[in-house]
Amino acid sequence: MGRIFISAAHGGREAGGIDPGSIAGGTTEAREMILLRDLIVTELRSRSFEVLAVPDDLSAAGTIAWINSRVRRGDVALETHADAASSPTVRGASVYYIASNNERKSNGELLLVGLLRRVPQLPNRGVKPDTDSGLGSLAFCRQVVIPSLLLQVGFISNPEDRALLQNRRRDFALGIADGLASWSRVIDPTPGTPQDPNYPPINININGQNYAEQGILVNGNAYIPIDLVDRLRIDLSKAPNVNRITYRKVVYIKAIELRDFNVAVGWDAATRTVILRSNLIVCPGQFDRIMSNGNTSEVELQLFLRNNNENALNQFPDLPKLYREEATMEGVNYDIAFCQMCLETGFLRFGGDIKPQQNNFAGLGSIGGGAEAASFPSARIGVRAHIQHLKAYASLEPLVNEVVDPRFRFVTRGVAPLLEQLSGRWSADLDYGTKIIAMIKRLYDSAGFFNANRV
C-alpha cells in the first residue's frame, strides 16, 4: 500500500522569518496544525500505515520539494490548514482539489466525510476546485506530483471552530485519519513492492483538431508532451514550478497548468480526451490593465453572479448593467470592476461590516476613518463611486461624471494602472490583485472566452 505524506501548514521560514499563519484567540494556525498533524500521524501509524510527516521548518516551496523528492507510485499527500475570515461568524471545513479532476474531487469527499462523521458539529463547506480559492490556484494541489489535497479544518477566526479544534483535537485527528485511510486504499488498493509506472494514454484535441501525439493520465491528471507546449508558443522558462515528468524518455507537463497561460483546459471522459483551446479574446497586456475594455456581455455577468450565488440578483437585478454602463463611460474595464465587486462582497452575500443597504460594492471607506464604511443613495451611485475610485488609481484623465467617491481626492492619481498594484493600496492584502485576477479567470472560463474562432 502507498505511503501518506502529511504537511501542517505554516510554521516554516517565509520571507526571512517564521510564518505563523493566521492568528486568533491567543493561538496561531501553525501551532494548531502541528498539534493536529502529530495526532493524525500517531493514529495512522497505529493502523499500520507508513506516514511521512513534512518537517515543520520548511517553507511552502520547500515542503513541496521535500515531498516530490521522496514520492513513489501509490503515495498521497495532504496539507492541513485553518482558515481565517474578516467576519468571525464564518466557519466550517472544506477540501480543495486541483480543478477539473473528478477523481481528486471524489478523494476529497472521502476525506471530508471522514472528518464530519467524527465532528458533526463542524459545518460542511464542501469539496471545491482550487480555482475557487482566493488565489485561483493552490500550489500544494498543483505542484505535488502525487495525488494531493488541501484540507481547511475550520476557521481559526471563528470562536466555535477554534473551541472545537482545541477541545476535540483527537476527534479531528481520528476523522482525518479515517478519510486518509479510505483515500489511500482507493489510490493503491493492493499492498506490495512499488512497480515502475504504466500510465494510460489519452487523446489530445487542440482548438477543435485532434493532435497526432497522445498524452498520459497520471494519478487522474492529464499530462501533455512538452513539444505541444512549444507549438502553442508558450514560454515555460519563467515558470519553474510547472509540473514536468519524464515518462519513457518523453517530457510531459500537467495540462491544467496551461490555464495560467490563457489556455482553456477541458476533459471528455467518454473519449478520454484532454481538450485545449488557445487564443483568448482578451488582448495581451490588457488582462490586468484597469483602463481597458471589458469583454463580457450583461447576460454573461448575470450568469456568473447567479451561478455563484443564486440569490445575488434578487436585491440588485441591474448590477451587471450598471457596471457595464458606468465603467464604459469612464474607460474602466468593467470585467475587472465587476470581479472586484464579487471578491469584496462574496458575490453579494456581504456578511462583513458593510450592509447591502449601503450600496457599497467595493469596500470604500468614509472620510476621516469613521465607524462605518461609505454609504451611497442608490446602487448606481455606489457603482459609480467604485468606478471613480478605480480610475483615480489607474489614470490621470478627468472624470466624466461629477465625483461621488468620497476618497477620490485623496488618491495619488495614476499610481496603480495594473491590478497587481492595488495590492497593499486598496487592501492591505498583498495578494489582493492576484485574487481579482483569479476571479477574472473564473469569469472568462464561465463565459467560454477560450475559442479558436474569436481572436
Describe this structure in words.
By secondary structure, the protein is an alpha/beta fold. The chain has 3 domains: 4-187, 3-Layer(aba) Sandwich (Aminopeptidase), CATH 3.40.630; 201-277, no CATH class; 298-447, Orthogonal Bundle (Lysozyme). 34% of the residues lie in helices and 17% in strands. It contains 13 helices and 18 strands. Strands 11, 12, 13, 14, 15, 16, 17 and 18 form an 8-stranded mixed beta sheet that branches. Strands 6-1-7-10-8-9 form a 6-stranded mixed beta sheet. Strand 11 (201-206) and strand 12 (209-210) form a beta hairpin. The longest helix is centred in the middle third of the chain and has 19 residues, at 169-187. Residues 280-284 and 450-455 have low confidence and may be disordered.
Low-confidence segments, ≥5 residues, pLDDT <50? 280-284, 450-455
Determine the CATH topology of the largest domain: Aminopeptidase
CATH class bucket of the largest domain: Alpha Beta
Class inferred from helices and paired strands: alpha/beta
List the domain count as a whole number.
Answer: 3
Helix content: 25-40%
CATH architecture of the largest domain: 3-Layer(aba) Sandwich
What distance separates the N and C termini?
Answer: 49 Å
Q: Kindly provide the radius of gyration, computed on alpha-carbon positions and rounded to a whole number of angstroms.
A: 23 Å
Give the CA-based shape.
globular
The major pleated sheet works out as:
8 strands, mixed
**DSSP helix count?**
13
What portion of residues belong to β-strands?
A: 15-25%
CATH evolutionary superfamily of the largest domain: Zn-dependent exopeptidases
